[in-house]
Amino acid sequence: MKRPKRLLYQTNKGAYAFMFIFIACLVAYTSFVLKSMQVDHMISAVSLINIVMLLAAFLTAEEIKVYNRKFQFVPLLYAAIMTYQLLNIPTGVAGGDLIIAKISAILAVVSAFAASGLSYFRNRIRAKVIAENNIGKSQLTK
Amino acid sequence: MANLRFEHIKKVYPNGVEAVVDFNMEIYDREFIVLVGPSGCGKSTVLRMVAGLEKITAGNLEIDGVRVNDKPPVDRDIAMIFQDYALYGNMTVYENMGFSLTVRKRPCDEIHDKVIAVSEIVKLDNELNRLPRNLSGGQRQRVALGRSIVRNAKVFLMDEPLSNLDAKLRAQTRREIILLHNRIKPTIIYVTHDQVEAMTMATRIVVMNNGVIQQIGTPYEVYRRPANMFVAGFIGCPAMNFLKGQIVEDRFVSGAFAIKLTPTEIQRVSGRQTVIIGIRPEHLLVSANPDVALLKRKISGKINYSELLGANATLRFCLNQTEIVAQVENSEYRNSGETVDLYVSLENVHFFDPETEALIEVIS
Ligand SMILES: Nc1ncnc2c1ncn2[C@@H]1O[C@H](COP(=O)(O)OP(=O)(O)OP(=O)(O)O)[C@@H](O)[C@H]1O
Ligand SMILES: [Mg+2]
Question: Global pTM?
Fold first, then answer.
């Protein structure tokens, strides 16, 4: 990175963007799976898990944007859940819906990894800049 | 950085108010122009026309030789700083300053370099992550300034930017704006009705009244050689004293009051009978043992109101039903009711034509 110091002032736009791609893919996955899956008790599980994950992913995106280190690996958890869902697509989903569900699940996993990775690397650079320049908390808070 | 040229600029608002009558002026690169005048005289209107926020009714406005009358504000390359700063409350200082570059989709590194460089100029490098609401008035003002510098505007327009700061902060911010002008030399047009600001900041002052330019000149010129009674009364605090009277031989006579004129003064008023004399309060002198010339320029009265202002004191008394104000050193302070003897300074007296109200100058 040419200007590591800019991380002190500019938000983590890259990771934030990846989180939003993840959210978009999650919406696509959920809607296409719900559209054609067999109606049984699994349907409530799928909808509940994914709705909760949507909300959580959004909150995580906001934290990642402002370089909250506690959240840098949280997207990996979402990636794991999506991987599980990818490998266990409910019965009844078939044809075009299945393809779209699979593609969006794969994209979601990839973007969750990207968000986490970017977040990790930038946080590391940022922490180094803060330590090297002896930057106090008062300069970083709004 | 730019030259501006106003040619017969006129502004009539849709409701018929003629706010600017015939504004002619050339502003050169790197000048600090201050527009002053009483409330409602059209200062803001001039500024808003330059910014493109108000349509010009007639005349030509040129920036760097290009007519801009019909150019929309965004294409004029002008930064306007409002009285209330108009910062984005949800953005940090850094984001506020870099906003113009962000909307133009400049690379992050470029934005960073510019904002950091400017934040050092306006001394906000430790507050970059703060929100405007957590800054002091002066700091907010500097954010607004910084934002315009980042934009690299040709002309800076400021409409009473210091009017909602307290006295101390105003003095400090004023100094900062002057230093900033010295450092990066932008062309600035600044509106104020604070005389101190006008006198200290301007390279040239434009005094306006009722939409008409009364005088354009350096602060020194405007103070020393006011073009007419309006300027004379407007610039200077307390305001200049005016007395109408006759020239009788080598004396100026106004009722019971008479002073002997100096040779240069006689030359100036020669051939006239009635004139208005203008004497600034600070040119009414107190003297323990005045010389012969001063003795013949005595003015005395019973003080009916006096104020001690710190270093100075003002004394007010009546002369031929006109209130005369004198500004003297604090040691000369008198209470109301006392009589005071003052002498009209041998230089620094102005004469005005009673009809045109224009300054009577030596014709040479
Ligand atoms: N939008 C408008 N429509 C109609 N008349 C206006 C408008 N804006 C200003 N005026 C009038 O134009 C005249 C000049 O107004 P302007 O705002 O330029 O004064 P100003 O010199 O900036 O005064 P102040 O020192 O009080 O800010 C005033 O008589 C005002 O009432
Ligand atoms: Mg105004």
Answer: 0.79
